[in-house]
Design a protein that fits this description.
This protein is of the alpha/beta class. 49% of the residues lie in helices and 13% in strands. The strands form 3 sheets. A 6-stranded parallel β-sheet has the order 10-9-8-11-12-13, sandwiched between helices. A 4-stranded parallel β-sheet has the order 4-5-6-7. It starts with a strand and ends with a helix.
């Protein structure tokens, strides 16, 4: 059984599901979604033609972490009692990841954790993801790590070496799948600002809980300053519907020339927009893993990242949420061609697009 509830989880679970379904003689695959991200989750399921066996549909307006964990824990309990799976697979660091792991532990069902071992070593950054991931590691029986650093993190925490497997990140598998689909499709340029001029396009995403409030305001004021000072720049920002994000962003950036605030994009369109961008400013985890395969420099608007590999490789810089730091680093990449080219030519440290194949091979051998 695979359990997940958010769009990023679905993107990273999709290639594993597809690979498992190729081996129906070995595996019966059951899909259970908690769906705390309803609309954004559904579009990924549709894109990858995935049909859940169980839809717990826990989403509600202004839901808190208490709502997500209690609802998902109780509803997953019912599914586990019905299905009695031999293995539960979870991904990443969401509240649904932790609640599914805890419920499985209570039933003594083995747990496989995809994208295991990422750490910032600060329990409040990212919040609550860092602790979700750490707790899941100590419940899981199989740990599929995206990098050597992630594997070393687990070993240092006392996780048995024989339960840790270096596979790469499944998000690269999904990215390559979508890039093939983009190549095969014609007339997909639905963004008018891509056609209107030859400006450098900066793609922005910012929605993390730890950036709510002043950090997000700083990010918005930095974006405003960047377009005011650089007439050859266009910014596009798909704005998360959470009121803590939407209200702040629209209050500061609405109706500013060359800043396009748009609705959240389906994954297909988002990958296409990434491919057309000059550089990316983000507080997202997944984009740090995807953009290197597209040769797009990344500025990470967080104080810490649980993906230090992307910083160490040189494709990304950690710029925090101070206005001056964001503006200064962005402008350097806009004006210094050598710095830009140095960042954009890095090989993706998160894998080669074959992580899902490795995961399924390991499961066949071990189970």
């Amino acid at each position: 059984m695979l359990v997940f509830g958010t769009r990023p989880e679905a993107i990273k679970m999709a290639p594993v599901i597809k690979e498992l379904q190729k081996h129906q003689q070995d595996f019966k695959t059951i899909i259970c979604i908690t769906a705390q991200h309803r609309e954004m989750l559904d579009e990924v399921l549709e894109l990858f033609a995935i049909k859940p066996d169980y839809d717990l549909n826990i989403m509600q307006d202004n839901q808190s972490l208490f709502d997500v964990i209690t609802k998902s824990l109780l509803k997953i309990k019912e599914v586990l009692e019905t299905e009695k799976p031999d293995l539960v697979m979870v991904q990443g660091d969401t509240t649904s990841t932790f609640s599914a792991s805890l419920a499985s532990f209570y039933f003594r069902i083995p747990i496989a954790h995809i994208e295991a071992g990422l750490r910032t070593k600060d329990k409040y950054q990212p919040f609550p993801e860092e602790i979700n991931r750490r707790l899941t590691s100590h419940l899981a029986d199989f740990h599929f790590t995206p990098t050597r650093q992630a594997k070393e993190n687990l070993i240092k925490e006392g996780i048995p070496k024989e339960s840790i497997f270096l596979t790469g990140n499944t998000v690269v598998d999904s990215l390559f799948y979508i890039l093939k689909e983009i190549k095969n499709k014609k007339d997909i340029d639905k963004f008018s600002f891509l056609n209107s001029n030859k400006n450098k396009l900066i793609l922005v995403t910012a929605h993390r809980r730890e950036n709510f409030g002043k950090p997000l305001k700083n990010i918005c004021f930095a974006l405003k300053k960047i377009v005011e000072r650089n007439k050859d720049v266009e910014i596009v920002y798909p704005v998360h519907p959470n009121p803590n994000v939407y209200n702040v962003v629209t209050a500061i950036l609405r109706d500013i020339e060359r800043i396009h605030l748009i609705k959240p994009l389906d994954y297909f369109s988002f990958v296409y927009l990434m491919s057309k961008s000059y550089l990316i400013l983000t507080d997202s985890g997944g984009i740090q893993e995807e953009a290197p395969s597209l040769g797009k420099p990344i500025l990470v608007m967080r104080e810490k990242t649980e993906r230090p590999e992307v910083i160490n490789s040189g494709i990304a810089k950690l710029v925090g949420t101070q206005i001056s730091s964001i503006v200064r680093t962005t402008e350097n990449l806009l004006k210094d061609r050598k710095s830009y080219e140095k960042m954009s030519k890095v090989v993706n440290p998160f894998g080669d697009g074959k992580a899902s194949e490795r995961i399924v091979k390991i499961l066949k051998k071990k189970l």
